[in-house]
Amino acid sequence: MAFLKLYRQKLQENYTFLNTIFRERGIQWGVVTKLLCGNTIFIKEVINLGVRELHDSRISNLKKIKKLDPNIQTVYIKPPSKRNIEKIVQYADVSFNTEIYTIQMLSEEAKRQNKVHKIIIMIEMGDLREGVLGEELLHFYEQVFSFPNIEIRGIGTNLNCLSGVMPTQDKLIQLSLYKQLIEAKFNVKIPWVSGGTSVAIPLMLKNARPMAVNHFRIGEALFFAKDLFTGETIEGMHNDVFKLYAEVIEITEKPDNPIGELGENVAGNTYEITDETDLGATSLRAILDIGLLDMQPQYLEPDNPNITIVDASSDMMVIDITKSEKNYKVGDLVSFKLQYMGALYLLNSDYIEKIVQ
């Protein structure tokens, strides 16, 4: 049975690295846990790091977090839907918002629950996902004042998540100017300017972040240490907090090319044979006990550089071990580093065992 392993010490060292650089710059931050898909084993590991603020986009996950530690500040990181208002007020201390109608419902529900619900007003800054348009921000902000049991915790933006717009220094300066504009217009203080996700960490390390941006929401950098500007690993961090282990269930020398009339496979792909195809070529192939139900091969990287992934069906994956210096046997484990999406698929699968080391 394939399993996913989290390396506790590497996670701790990544957290310490990030916490140190944020603390030195006077930045508040929370950990985004949506990658963990509500897995309580791994959520506990994150809480044990000393984290006091967790962000998620699933209410069921926030409910689990509150059950594990009611004192952790929970943040719902997308605009709430109407049918979930009651649960959001119950399990999220803070939510991201872009609609007056939604904030009015949150206000009414917070009053019923005798709570003050905090909101972040998200601003559209070019990535074309959620956000109030800049020219409408002052009017929007003014309307929120009329709602009881609502506290405006800050403003924020989301970049790079839909259209790939990067959080450049200019973009974050623009966000900072919105803060100044609101504070001057309404004579208020905005505690959070939440413009930072993992993709903005390189700006911070270069001291290119505007000082007004004082809140970060970090997931990918904590678990994968990836510099999203360059694609490289952030120096001083670990990129293998998670690893996948799959078991070899067959090893056989087989032709490289299928034999027979060809149609679409289970993924809707058709194998192509061209004039350049070597019809007599063979390779030593191993089958692993994991498939498309659990993962997508393009997001996996074999630890053994002499292994290549051939393809996968619903429950099995084929790898080419012809050039491997290791003499694999049936029953051996093959390990893989993961990209973010690779871990997301695996964590969302009930068929993959989750282990902490």
TrEMBL record:
Entry cofactors: pyridoxal 5'-phosphate
KW Coiled coil (keyword) present: no
Domain Alanine racemase N-terminal span(s) in chain numbering: 9-225
Key words, A-Z: Isomerase, Pyridoxal phosphate
Protein name, UniProt field: Alanine/ornithine racemase family PLP-dependent enzyme
Organism of origin: Flavobacterium jumunjinense
